[in-house]
Amino acid sequence: MTEFSDSYTDDFDGDGQDDDTLYVESDGTDTSYLVDYDNDGDIDAEVIDLNSDGTADEVHVDTDGDGISNYSGYDTDGDGMLDTYDVDSDGDGQIDATLVDKDGDGYADA
Predict the structure, then answer these.
(1) Domain span at residue 20?
(2) What's the confidence (pLDDT) of residue 18?
């Protein structure tokens, strides 16, 4: 079983119910933030800070709850902005597209 160093809950909509849970796990060289957006007990996203500098180096999102990442983003040039994205649009566990956004405008470059 994974041991987490911290966990946090948030009530973003003010209804008195926790909307998500953030689990933090660190081994001293990198830090993973595991997010359960809907508090169903399944991890919906993982944010990885590979060098514990406070910026995300990788993001993995499971949109359908099957435990397989449907979307992953990477900061390949170390500028603190995700610039390369792998997408599994049909949920078969295979990458269907890799999109690159080197100019940081939020859209895949042509």
Answers:
(1) 6-100
(2) 64
Task: Give a yes or no: residue 109 inside a domain.
Answer: no
Q: Is the dihedral of CA 110, 103, 49, 2 positive or negative?
A: negative
Report the number of distinct structural domains present in the chain.
Answer: 1
C-alpha dihedral sign at 77, 49, 1, 88: negative
| Residue 74 located in a structural domain | yes
Q: What is the pLDDT of residues 90-102, one digit of tens each?
A: 888 888 999 998 8
Residue with tokens 């990442």: 69
- The residue assigned the tokens 């990477």 is 74
Residues sharing a CB contact under 8 Å with residue 95, sequence separation 6 or more, in sequence order: 86, 87, 88
- How buried is residue 68: exposed, middle or buried, by Cβ count under 10 Å (0-12/13-18/19+)? middle
